[in-house]
Description:
Elements: E1 2-7, H1 11-15, E2 22-29, H2 36-42, E3 48-54, E4 62-63, H3 65-70, E5 76-78, E6 88-89, E7 104-106, H4 114-119, E8 126-131, E9 135-139, E10 148-153, E11 159-163, E12 171-175, E13 187-193, E14 200-204, E15 207-208, E16 221-229, E17 244-252, E18 269-277, E19 295-300, E20 318-325, E21 340-346, E22 360-364, H5 373-376, E23 383-387, E24 405-409, E25 432-435, E26 454-456, H6 460-471, H7 476-486, H8 500-508, H9 515-532, E27 540-544, H10 551-561, E28 564-566, E29 575-578, E30 594-596, H11 598-608, H12 619-629, H13 634-647, H14 654-663, H15 667-676, H16 683-690, H17 711-718, H18 721-724, H19 726-740, H20 745-748, H21 755-761, E31 765-766, E32 769-771, H22 772-776, H23 778-781, H24 790-795, H25 797-801, E33 826-828, E34 849-851, E35 872-874, E36 895-897, H26 921-926, E37 931-933
Parallel strand pairs: 1-2, 2-3, 3-5, 4-6, 5-7, 7-8, 8-10, 9-11, 10-12, 11-13, 12-14, 13-15, 14-16, 16-17, 17-18, 18-19, 19-20, 20-21, 21-22, 22-23, 23-24, 24-25, 25-26, 27-28, 27-29, 29-30, 32-33, 33-34, 34-35, 35-36, 36-37
Antiparallel strand pairs: 31-32
Amino acid sequence: MQSMELEDYNHDSLLESVHLDVEHLFYDSDEPMESWQQLSRAFPRLRKLTFEDLGRVGGRKEVNAEFFQQFPNLSELEMPTRSRDKLSVRLEGVNPEHLANLEKLTLSQCRDEDLALLSSLPKLTELTVRLYQSSVNVVISDQSPLKVLKVGLESQVKALCCDLENSQLTSVVLGQLDYYDDGPTALSVNQLCLPSSLQEFTLDAHCIGKLPGAILGANQDLDQLTLNLGSAELSEDLLGELKELNRLTLTLSEPTPPLPAALFAKLTRATKFELKCEQTPISGLLLPHGMVVEDFNYFNASGALEQANALVLPELTRAWVFGLKGDQLDWLAHSPKLAQCNFVVKGKVSQMPELPALTSLTLQGAELEQLPTSVLGSSTIERLSLLSVSLPRLGDMSQMTALADVWIKPWRHEQASLPDQQDLIAIPALKSLRLDIEMKQFDPAWINLNAELDLDISNEKLAAEWQILKRSHLSDEESLGYLNILAPVYKPVELPSMPANFHLTMMAAKYNRFKAQHKAWLSQLAQHNQQQRPFGADSILFVSGRSGFKATELKAKAEEVGFSLSKKLDDKVTHILLGSAPKNIESFDLERHAIIDDSVLQQCFEANAPKFLQQQGGESMEASVLEMLASPDEASHKVAVQMLEQGGVTEAMRLPLFLILKTTADNSFRKQIKHLLAGMGDEAFQLAVNDRILFHNCRGLDDYGNLKGQGVMVDKLKKQRRKWGEVLCMEFAQLFFRRYGEGLIYVMLQKTPAELRLSMLESLVEGDCLNWRRGMGMDQIQEFWHKESQINLHWHPMHYLNNDSLLGAVKIEIPKELASGRTIRRLDLGNCLLSTLPKGADQFTEITSLSLAHNMLDSLPSAMTKFTQLEELDLSFNHFREFPKVLLKMPWLKKLDFRRATRPGLDEDYGSHYHKLRVPQAFLEACPDCEVLQD
């Protein structure tokens, strides 16, 4: 059976063709059709039709006799059954012969009198309908072939009479059809008779009053019985002669009279038994002695199960019980097969029977002095959960040899409410400990836990740090001190000054949370050591971890400078070059060994053995290399890097190399550049060199064909401010702009008029022109744009050029310093995502030319009249709804470009549907000498 989906986008095209091979159609469109004949002509061989939505058919939005006339061969018809999605159905005048082939039918709505017609159909075995009259009468005769009946009742249904006693039904659902359904709010069930063939029955509705008795008739066994009721009063003989079933669910969602004492008296087996009440007293014995129940779920908000300890359930394997008292657990002694327990208990629990098969125990809300003796002595419990339990200590848990997982959640997540954690140490095979607490300090007991344990303390980072320290060479006392310092630290910048052992241990474990702090500590220590014990000739160097210097380079430098390299750390070593992921840290002696980093070593090399580019006289060659680094060609970059490996890197080359490092997609090339920059600059620069933040994929189109714009680059750079520092971020943005023509917007969006920012923005002054447009870089982005879709840029430039709004609102301010000390005659603010004149623009009162083209302006401010020398004004490709009235007050204008001045529609063109905004006659008369360009 080939299927097809008909939706809004393909509605007309599918109806224009004939699809002989389609037998199943999924219809989800609210587009109108001329008639049902139009659909049957396109799909003449349909056997199954599923409606999700429907538009008007011949002016009416309904399924009616004409529909069934056009589709007499349907075997399945489905419609949505939720109230908000339902389709109108009218069965008046339907010829029964047109329904004769239906085997499965789901109708959004119908009347109860229609059931006589539907239930008599010769092949129909499964029927789902929704009824909406206030009083519903459901009757199915013994002649009906129906096996499955689902009747959804609308909220306005108040009374139900249901006579199915003579039918052949095996499954019946009355009331709500799914979780999201809106069923009756107050339903009176006046008659309910079910057939002897029944296997599954569900009544899911808020019932009131007393339910009829013996609703199951002579049925003695069922597969499933579900009664989700409201405040209904239950008859003692409600279940009739029922003895066995696989699953019984009874829910009373509001206060009710007491549960009848003999309600379940005839039951001998309910494999899964669920009773959920809000306030229903249960004074008698709930279930008969010895009844077969394997899965027992009991919930009663009032906790009114008076004879709980009289329960005898010998086959019970799983129990979820909510609402018992602390002294109502003795009945468990009669359930030796019980493996899983989840109890919400009120009051004190002093004892609990031994359960030889118990593997999982959850206690909630109980009060204990310590865990019951039967629990502490259990060798079978594998999982223990204590949720909102009050107990000062756990007890001796050394005999709980199978216990692997412990979960403790104290009241209100208070750490002070935890039981004594020292008891956890005695658990022989503990693998996982979860503590739902608001961490205040690291408990001393936790430091003694097995390092392989999965510690979940809601602070994942602290748990990871505990594991690192636990596995390290540090003493428990020292580790505990560090962990208590780390407990309140949520951000790396909050870390106070820490001892060398802490930094070395975390670095050795390759833990990067405090990478910036490790770098800063190492840089300060290395500089201090260099002053106290300078590295140079006669020094003996041991390398620990990954350094930016290659082994071959260090050997060559050793010969040039005169120091020695040692392969082992002994008393002869004078200096340790500390790289990332250092080894042998437990052997470090900070009194004997001076720790240095790549930066200090690089300084020593440059001072004692500078390469030829780093020496005086290499300025001309340096200029040539800088020119190669500034080239857009990566091949030139690679040649330059080869030269620098021989000649050395000067200070002027650091930033150009840094730009290439961050923008190349070549991993091996990046490694070469990292090696060249090893040890150069301050710790922030070294952190930036060695991090994994890359910008090679920030431009062009994303995976969906949308412009990335500059937002990806700017957003990524913003996130590095704290690590790199503002100066390096701004310098990188400037270099990125020089290379690609975009990225300077990062600097332009800054609000602080720093000196560095001003010097960068001054590069936008070209003679007497301030070219703000070039700085914004939007023209460069459009090189990736589909040329045939340029009109969409005009329609919504912010949407296309500011993808995911990563640039924010793009509110820019032109610094007043750019106007001082120079004469600006031309101001280009085109393609700057402007919706209004930017702040600071009105200070350029001497301009003769102003471009505001390709923006989102829909009006102009009165401040425009300050431009008394303005001669040329470009307002093309904007969003004006009317001609700006302020222009009538500017008779000195000599040229006005007003083409495409208003916004087009999405995916439209500038043809007949485009609303052309005309320059009014009043302006033409006020400015007779002005050249006007308009549509």
